[in-house]
Write a structure and sequence with these properties.
It comes from Thalassotalea algicola. One of its GO terms (molecular function) is glucose-6-phosphate 1-epimerase activity. The protein is mainly β. The protein is built from one helix and 20 strands. It has a single domain, classed as Beta-galactosidase, Chain A, domain 5. Helices cover 2% and strands 48% of the residues. The termini are far apart. The structure holds 6-O-phosphono-beta-D-glucopyranose (BG6).
Length: 287
């Protein structure tokens, strides 16, 4: 067991994650959390006196070259499919380095960095990407992209949060009602409707920068999401049929979560030398 920082408020350990990967395990007076250095991916956050906030599949794969199913996978530098490349870019499958760690009375602040050049043939640029997390009674995720090259590049991206819910059948997201969306399943654009629940199959890109509340009466809580510099929310639950074709979702897992992803799904330019940011703040309210 390797404790990398400890004081009277809490401690952070670095531990194996499966046989190939490493994770940071946070134990603090106000919350427990886990963060995989592979993918720079939050796996868990549980404020004191609350249930776990994120869903993590029992069938998740902890292997180099695979994405981990659950928590907050990073979709970057592209969201969804891009030309011949697979879904969601390479950031969720690279190793991130710990660059800052501060345990204070109210929070644990963790900063991790990935820096690279020409990581993918379809994205031959030089960039430094930083994620700053604040784990406390509230959760913050600040994603910063710096263009280290001499010409502009563009990205799309998402913080692909899997939220643990009692059952999507019981859940509403009132803020999405009436907001315009493109449906990825039918291909229909600029739709509007009102959802009575978030049972899948649902795969929608909403055009909204508003704060969102995931209302889960059965669980007795709301999850409040405040976006930072994003233009979209992506709502995804695969539904039973599709989930059964996905080998890293345990049987019935689709009935335990909903994804609501703070995203920029249209290409965003980043000039040479420029630094841009997006992110999200998450808090829990009892209802
Ligand atoms: O299986 P992946 O690559 O993690 O993607 C999961 C889902 O992620 C969502 O963000 C997409 O809108 C869906 O289309 C996709 O199926």
């Amino acid at each position: 067991m390797s404790v990398i920082q400890e004081n009277s408020f809490g401690k952070v350990k670095q531990l194996p994650l499966g046989s190939e990967l490493e994770q940071l395990v946070i134990e603090h007076n106000v919350c427990q959390a886990r963060l995989s250095l592979y993918g720079g991916q939050v796996l868990s956050w549980q404020p004191v006196d609350q249930k776990e906030v994120f869903w993590l599949s029992n069938g998740a794969l902890y292997q180099n070259g695979k994405a981990i199913r659950g928590g907050i996978p990073i979709c970057w530098p592209w969201f969804g499919g891009y030309e011949s490349a697979g879904n969601h870019g390479f950031a969720r499958q690279v190793l991130w380095q710990l660059s800052r760690l501060e345990i204070s009375e109210e929070t644990v602040l963790i900063e991790i960095v990935w820096q690279g050049e020409a990581q993918h043939e379809l994205w031959p640029y030089a960039a430094k990407v930083t994620q700053r997390f604040v784990f406390g009674l509230q959760f913050e995720q600040h994603f910063t992209i710096e263009n280290l090259g001499l010409k502009e590049f563009a990205y799309t991206g998402a913080l692909h949060s899997y939220f643990s819910v009692s059952d999507p059948e019981n859940v509403t997201v009132p803020g999405l009602d009436g907001a315009g969306f493109d449906c990825k399943i039918t291909g229909n654009k600029q739709q509007k409707d009102k959802l009575n629940n978030v049972t899948g199959p649902l795969d929608r890109i909403y055009y909204s920068s508003e704060a969102m509340t995931i209302v889960d009466r059965q669980a007795g809580r709301s999850i409040v999401l405040t976006p930072i510099n994003v233009n979209n929310w992506v709502l995804w639950n695969p539904g039973r049929e599709t989930a059964q074709t996905m080998n890293d979702i345990h049987d019935g897992g689709e009935n335990e979560y909903v994804c609501l992803e703070a995203a920029n799904t249209d290409w965003q330019n980043v000039n040479a030398g420029q630094l841009v940011k997006f992110g999200q703040v998450i808090s829990i309210e009892s209802i």
